[in-house]
């Protein structure tokens, strides 16, 4: 069975949604990121060198990072149809969206929140405005990033857009708001939220809003 190092109200939520989309059996392993003993545990650091969640264990395989986990799971469970095949012309676009959150959206938002000066040409992520423009364009034709086909990239980008909305960073864009709604309406997304609530309650933690 797959096991996921997890903690509530973190990017591990994205990995739980990914696992639900695959239909695989999995277990959540609570890892308190505020407890230095847990974060610095050598066994955990062996799979998550930065001491961060999520991290996935699958037999002899163990590694961290939600993007890596998404890419891995989509290929590991091909029957779920979450990734275009290597020779599918949509594969490159899929990969571009898979890395968009970590490579573009999160750095752009981080820079924005820090109030730092933007260096559009020097920054690998361009700027906050160009990041939002790319997102709007990406969801414009829909319903998903690759058109009719839902992929793991929609979990990456959908969870990011939903997070932007929660923290009040999502612009009044009908396209992005509708895309967020479509993503959150996925049955696997709802199952993941339930699973996380149960796990948080089992740890005696605040499960967050229902
Ligand atoms: N790029 C990573 C980021 C993971 C990350 O930053 N996780 C945070 C929680 S959202 C964490 O574990 N922080 C604990 C720490 O850095 O000590 C991913 O997408 O999985």
In words, what does this structure look like?
The mean pLDDT is 95. This protein is of the alpha+beta class and 210 residues long. It has 2 domains: 2-80 and 188-202, Glutaredoxin; 91-186, Glutathione S-transferase Yfyf (Class Pi), Chain A, domain 2 (Up-down Bundle), CATH 1.20.1050.10. It is built from 9 helices and 4 strands; from the N terminus they run βαβααββαααααα. The relative contact order is 0.14. The radius of gyration is 17 Å and the shape is globular. It starts with a strand and ends in an 8-residue tail after the last helix. A hairpin with a 2-residue loop joins strand 3 (55-58) and strand 4. Strands 2-1-3-4 form a 4-stranded mixed sheet. The structure holds glutathione. Glutathione (GSH) is lined by residues 10-11, 33, 39, 51-54, 65-67, 102.
Topology, element by element:
Layout lengths: L1 E5 L5 H11 L3 E5 L5 H4 L2 H6 L7 E4 L2 E4 L1 H11 L14 H24 L13 H13 L11 H15 L7 H11 L2 H16 L8
Parallel strand pairs: 1-2
Antiparallel strand pairs: 1-3, 3-4
Helix pairs in contact: 1-4, 1-7, 1-9, 4-7, 5-7, 7-8
The structure holds glutathione.
């Amino acid at each position: 069975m797959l096991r996921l190092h997890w903690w509530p109200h973190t990017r591990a939520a994205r990995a739980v949604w990914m696992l639900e989309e695959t239909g695989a059996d999995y277990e959540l392993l609570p890892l308190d990121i505020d407890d230095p003993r847990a974060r610095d545990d050598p066994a955990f650091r062996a799979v998550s060198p930065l001491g961060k969640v999520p991290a996935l264990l699958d037999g002899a395989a163990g590694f961290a990072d939600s993007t890596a986990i998404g890419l891995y799971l989509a290929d590991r469970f091909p029957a779920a149809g979450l990734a275009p095949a290597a020779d599918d012309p949509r594969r490159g676009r899929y990969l571009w969206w898979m890395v968009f959150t970590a490579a573009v959206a999160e750095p752009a938002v981080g820079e924005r929140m820090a109030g730092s000066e933007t260096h559009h040409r020097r920054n690998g992520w361009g700027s906050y405005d160009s990041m939002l423009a790319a997102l709007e364009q990406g969801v414009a034709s829909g319903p998903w990033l690759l058109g009719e086909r839902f992929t793991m990239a929609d979990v990456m980008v959908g969870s990011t857009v939903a997070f932007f909305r929660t923290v009040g960073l999502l612009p009044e864009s009908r396209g992005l708001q509708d895309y967020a709604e479509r993503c959150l309406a996925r049955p696997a997304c709802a199952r993941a939220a339930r699973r996380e609530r149960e796990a948080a309650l089992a740890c005696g933690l605040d499960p967050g809003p229902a």
